[in-house]
Amino acid sequence: MYKIVRKDILNATVTRMDILAPLVAKKAKAGQFIILRVDESGERIPLTIADYNRAAGTVSIIFQTVGATTEQLARRHVGDYVMDFVGPLGCATRIEGLKKVAIIGGGVGCAIAYPVAKALHEQGAEVHTIAGFRNKDLCILEQEFAAVSDKFCVMTDDGSCGEKGLVTDALRSLITSGEQYDEVIAIGPLIMMKFVAALTKEYGIKTVVSMNSIMIDGTGMCGGCRLTVGGEVKFACVDGPEFDGHLVDFDEAMQRNAMYREQEHHAHEKTCRLFREGVR
Length: 280
What we know:
- The protein has helices spanning 22-27, 68-74, 110-123, 142-148, 167-176, 190-203, 236-239, 250-257, 261-276; strands at 2-9, 14-20, 33-37, 45-53, 58-64, 81-82, 84-89, 100-106, 126-133, 151-156, 163-164, 183-187, 207-210, 226-229, 232-235, 242-244.
- It is α/β, with parallel strands linked by helices.
- The longest helix is centred in the last third of the chain and has 16 residues, at 261-276.
- The two termini are 19 Å apart.
């Protein structure tokens, strides 16, 4: 059993929790993930490690309530427990030798981009971060990003926070102004990463994307996170989750990612109904 020691509501659908898991915190690195199970009858889901504190023995997760398990998790409180919390899993972000990097985060993907930006900052690299959201109400981690970024830009679709536009608008502006990056790291919706990779390909800038959004069981056994990278079949959970953005077949990944959307929606609705009826 793993105790919830902190809970913050970041926006209407996104929650941060700190879980007491000393062994996971001891070895966690940016880019890795955990698998948790809320209770003994629950499903196992992968969630990326948003932060960790080795001294306190805690691991932070940030999740969006979209399905049955995230709904159950969001209803837990400080002092409650989750049944399983396994990790760290997956390959850590490769940051060695990088001196100047642009980090691009989109929506809840910013929760995954933040530990990468933090790790690069602690390494001494120059970090430029662009965070994109639909509107002001969905913005998260602004103060955290500002603390670890040499340049920090917020973009919103409607201009209600930061600048109006897309993350690619801000990235193109930085590149054309003369900024030269060793690498661009993009984490967020598949469509966002697709267009970031298309932009950086124009300028020949190495680009890494995180494909954690298509993971299901996190072990490589279900095949749900299968994707094509450079013409080869890869599995996001065991071969990644990070890959060369210029080699990923995003159209295939987006099609696969939409396969279970209807079932996920129905499971979420059922779970909410059971909570309302006092069954759970």
